[in-house]
Amino acid sequence: MGSRPTSLDFVPALPPFNKRTADIIFITSDNVAFRVHSQLLSLASRIFEGMFDLPQPVLDGSDGQAGAIFSTQVLHDGLPLIPVSERSDVLETLLRFLYPVPDPTLASVKELDPVLKAALKYDMLEAIDILKERLRGFIKTALLEVYCIACCYGFEEQAAIAAAHIRSRDLQYSYVPQLRQTTAGCYFRLLQYCKTPSKQSSFCHPPSDSSDRVADSSAVLDANPLFDNIQADTILRTFNNVDFLVHSMVLTQTSTVFRDMFSIPQPERKTDDEQSHDFEDARPIVRITETSIVMDSCTFVTIENP
């Protein structure tokens, strides 16, 4: 949500979102005013249905302003102004799926992604179904982008279809900006799928019966020999208690997350006669939520692609 809008901050949206029959006004992040109909939005979105079921301001008919108890509600032409975080192009595209006008065209996954995100945010089921089909339509031209977006939003069917095409065309090592919005686990499962002919049960989520995800044992294991170098200065301990001996200097050069992590003041080391859960063999222990399989894949990528 942005700052509270005033009638001087915005410009009116284009038709059909400028009709006088509207009963509320959305103000986008780039200050465009969309006059919309709450009844139509309530039918399309359970989020808006719940919002509009809340008690509304009682207007004073003499001057079109809210009564004293709702004096903080900003109005324009007697209609409440509701700021939303979406840009005007995103909101207009989304609303056109709801209004009785031709559906908008989406030329790329880059255009589709923020609209799909907004549809999911507002729980607009029909728009979500349409956009999922549109996403699938980009598989021939934007395979890895579709896979990343599908995994980001938990669309297993679209992710599986994209993964099959990625494997057949050997595109798993390509780079697209959408890789930044998916998890290491989703990318790792794609790499594993492309290496083997076996069927992947899930791309968006780790298998529920994966033994690698079970951490009920207190035993701490060692990683493969590449990450068992005694000259390392830091221990990364994974979710399933596997220790990776790493060099903090290398990690800080390849990851801003690790750079920020290692810049945090560390606890004082205990003497040799004292036990410490934060250090082992004079090395700090950094606990991470990823499993050893995911970390093994990520660190190999870092080493092979400096």
TrEMBL record:
SMART domains: BTB. SUPFAM superfamilies: POZ domain. Residues 22-99 form the BTB domain. InterPro entries: BTB/POZ_dom, SKP1/BTB/POZ_sf. PROSITE patterns: BTB. This is BTB domain-containing protein.
